[in-house]
Structures are given as C-alpha cells and as structure tokens.
Design brief:
There is one protein chain. This protein is 20% helix and 28% strand. It has three domains: 58 residues, no CATH class; 90 residues, Immunoglobulin-like, CATH 2.60.40; 320 residues, Purple Acid Phosphatase, chain A, domain 2, CATH 3.60.21. By secondary structure, the protein is of the alpha+beta class. The strands form six sheets. Strands 7, 8, 9, 11, 12 and 13 form a six-stranded antiparallel β-sheet that branches. A six-stranded mixed β-sheet has the order 16-15-14-23-24-25. It is built from ten helices and 25 strands.
Length: 490
C-alpha cells in the first residue's frame, strides 16, 4: 500500500501494516504516522462485521414516501417510490381480473446519490385495464394503509366516446419546517391545514396535476445542491401527503420555488441540479427535447392533451428592458406551436406556473413579455386551434378568467392557489377581485384545490370546474362546453 507518496512494506506473511497513532510514538513525534500489525484473523472478522452491518442496514430499509403512479399510457405506467436507505426495489403487479398472474418489474438499486428513489416502468399493459401492485424493498413487501392500484389508459379512439373522468389541480404547497422558515406566523398554516390532502383523496381524482410551487426552497436550501436535495426529501416525506400520492396518477410542472429562489430565472446557477431533482421526483411522460433541457412536454390523458410548460429554465427576468425578451425561450415556443398543431385531442390544456391572460397582474406573468405573448395568442387565432383552455397557479388566490377574442371563441384560464401556502394579501385581493375578466363568483382567497370533470358524449362534452376548500366545502362550480370552444366557421 502507499502512504504519503511512499510504499509501506512488510516482511511478515501473516500480518498487515495499518496506519496507527500509538500514544508513545505520538508523544515523541506527533506528526509521524505509526504502524500497527493487525493479524489476518482479526482483519477477516472486521470485514465480515462490516458486511453484516451493510446487509443489516439494507434489510432495515423500508418505504418512506409513495408509492406514486406517474404518467400512464395504454401500454405502460411509471411508478415512483422512496426508501429510508439503500438496497433494491421491485414492483409486482397484476390485472385485477386475474390476480394469480403476477408480473414483476426490473429490480432497481436504491442509492444515496439518488436519495434512495426508485422509478419503474411497468408493462406491457393492456389498454383500459385496472391493475393492482405492491412494492418490495430488498425482497420484502411494503405495507401501506391503502389498496394500491392503477389504470392503463383506454383505447377509445375510433371506437366509442371518451370516458368520463376527473382530475385535481393545485399549486403552492408550503410545508412548514420552523427551523428554516421565516419568523412569524407559519406560512403553511396550522397543522390542521394539511387535512386538505385527505380532502383531495376523497375527491378520488383519476389524475392529479401539480401546478408549480409544490415545495419551497428556503434560504438555507437554495445555495447548494445538497440543500435542494434536503428540501425534496423533507417535503416528499410529509406523512399527510402520502394518501393523495397513492391515489390515481400524477404529473407536474414547476414554478420558481422548486426551481430556485423566489422569482428566479434562467440565470440561476443551480438550475441543472434543480432539473435533475425535478425529474427524479416526478415521473412525467417526458422532459424537454434532446437538444433543449427543461421540464416541458405533452401528456395525453383520455381526450385531453396537457401541454406542460417550463416557465423558468429559459426565462428572462420580468423587468429586463430588452426587445424580444422571453419567458419560454425560442425553442420551447416553437415546440409548443408544433405540438398544438400536431395534437388530435379535442381538448388542449396549457399548464403554466405563471398566469397567461391576466391583464391587471402586478406580479410575475406572461403579460410582462408582451411581444412573445401576443404573438402566441395570435398564432392560436390564425391557426384556428380549437378546444384550448389554460391552467395556472402561483398567485395564492383562485379565479376563472374569460378573455374575449375577436373572431374566435373566448379563452378561459383557471388559476388555482394556494394549497397550503398563505392566501394573498389584502392589497392583492382588493386589486385582483376587480378584474373585469373574472367570471363572477369565482374569486377565492383561501386554501383550496380545484377539480375538473370531463364528462358527456362527444356531441356534448363538458368540463365541470369546482373549487374545494380544506374541509371539502364546494366554494363554486362552473361549466364549460366544448362546443363553445370552437372557432366559428367562415
């Protein structure tokens, strides 16, 4: 072996030299390394002991968060989970109609570098089937207080009308951690505020879409890779959240608070690590393009295409005084236009962390990028893109905006927020509640989430939107008809 640039030699065949710190030699020369002979028998015992400890630690690893079903398709589903320590994990799954035919996913390693997260592709599935599943860590089935199940997406095209289904939508989920929070009243509300997760479970969504600010990096987190990882591990392990994570399937976008500091933009130095973590914790259908990093992508669920926008990775500062400044970046914007033209889904939902159509917005929003936004809205009109609505978060209030567009149908934007974070200030509430574009009766300034029900036959497809309070009280309900989201024929 080598020490400090020189070989350490031993003439004894049955002993190894080990660097030591024997007191008598340290007293004589405290900087001099010492050597102690360790019998091979003792070395063998030490190695075996370390191996036993390693196996014991692996066997002790158990489920910490999830499991959660991510993006589903007709032939596959993505499943996410996180363990308390290292080891291996696997998914066993079966068609509920034939539970004796158990199939297994590939085994994946649970490593410290990936926060002991496992992601799985399960397939090949049959379209429109219900499957049960369970998680094994180091060969041991993990017990959870819910029945674990998922559905492959149905093959309805060219055969029948689309299925009726429900989604939940929310944003701004600040989870308190007093040691690192700002002083004062807890921003994430009292402990009972977390009951909203159980209320979401009661709604039984087929899909939950997390609309940005799922978590909030603190000042102690945002200046280091390990800080970002700490926040993800802490928030995802919230016990009250596990029920909704195990219900239906899930996709997500990000906004500033799980990207970086408040109102952060393309200049954030750790955005590469932030993107890696977002992809690690959210099993979306896809992320960006091979040549363009980001969280943007399309997810199809039944008769809806969701266009998940990345409003951070390529974003200029809202206050930048420069012509042609951008929120999405040229490549993402070109992708979005082409993806909308390629979509055959009757309903097309744009999902943005920042508001899109709000004209009186005093905070961040696409209105701060007027040339880019107006060119895109003109594209929608010029290309007669039908069935479009918008979902957004960020603002710590909920409302439904209706923007009239000459020569085409009105564009609706549902902003839904906050889930756990503090509601908007009195000044913001008084200003925003007077927005002439608000559909009357839809402004909410308390913790809530929204549901969207897609229902009815093709000839009378409707979207029923509701805002739901922490205790399950319905705050308002409105209905949009797909027949009224079409460009008039010339």
């Amino acid at each position: 072996m080598f020490f400090a640039g020189g070989p350490i030699r031993s003439s004894a065949r049955h002993h190894l030299w080990v660097i030591g710190t024997r007191d008598n030699q340290k007293l004589a020369n405290p900087n001099r390394p010492t050597m102690t002979r360790l019998p091979l028998t003792s070395l063998f015992i030490a190695i075996v002991s370390l191996a036993v400890m390693s196996v014991s630690n692996a066997q002790a690893s158990e489920l910490k968060a999830g499991p959660m079903v991510g993006a589903t398709a007709m032939r596959q589903a993505k499943i996410w989970m996180q363990a308390t320590g290292q080891g291996t994990a696997q998914i066993e799954y079966w068609d509920i109609a034939t539970p004796e035919r158990v199939r297994k996913s590939a085994t994946v390693p649970l490593t410290p570098d990936n926060d002991f997260v496992g992601q799985f592709l399960v397939g090949l599935l049959e379209p429109g089937r219900s499957y049960g599943y369970r998680v094994l860590i180091n060969g041991k089935v993990q017990k959870v207080p819910q029945t674990l199940a998922f559905k492959s997406q149905a093959l309805w095209q060219w055969r029948t009308d689309a299925l009726d289904w429900r989604m939940a939508f929310s944003s701004c989920g600040f989870v308190n951690e007093p040691a690192y929070d700002r002083l004062g009243r807890p921003y994430g509300g009292p402990p009972e505020a977390k009951r909203i997760y159980d209320t979401m479970v009661s709604a039984q969504p087929d899909l939950t879409l997390w609309g940005g600010d799922y978590l909030y990096f603190r000042e102690a987190d945002e200046d280091s890779e390990l800080g970002l990882r700490y926040r993800w591990m802490y928030d995802r392990g919230t016990p009250e959240q596990q029920g909704i994570l195990r219900t239906g399937s899930h996709i997500a976008i990000w906004d500033d608070h799980e990207f970086g500091p408040n109102d952060s933009n393309m200049s954030y130095g750790l955005k590469g690590e932030a993107l890696r973590l977002f992809k690690l914790y959210w099993p979306n259908s896809s992320f960006g393009l091979p040549e363009t990093p980001g969280t943007f992508g399309v997810h199809r669920f039944n008769d809806v295409d969701f266009f998940l926008l990345d409003n951070r990775y390529h974003r200029d500062h809202d206050d930048l005084k420069q012509k042609n400044k951008t929120m999405l970046g040229a490549t993402q914007l070109r992708w979005l236009k082409n993806a909308l033209l390629a979509s055959v889904a009757p309903i097309k939902i744009l999902v943005s962390g920042s508001q899109v159509t709000n004209e009186i917005n005093r905070s961040e929003g696409w209105d701060k990028f007027p040339e880019e936004r107006e060119a895109f809205l003109k594209f929608l009109t010029d290309h007669r893109i039908n069935g479009v609505m918008i979902l957004s978060g960020d603002r710590h209030f909920t409302n439904l905006l209706r923007t009239e567009r000459p020569g085409t149908y009105a564009l609706h934007e549902l902003t839904c927020s906050p889930l756990l974070s503090g509601p908007s200030s009195t000044t913001t509430r008084e200003h925003e509640s007077k927005n002439p574009a608000i559909v009357p009766g839809t402004f909410v300034n308390q913790r809530n989430f929204c549901t969207l029900d897609f229902k009815g036959p093709r000839t009378d497809r409707r979207i029923v939107i509701r805002s739901v309070a922490t205790d399950g009280q319905q705050l308002w309900e409105r209905e949009l008809k797909l027949s009224e989201m079409q460009t008039p024929r010339p």
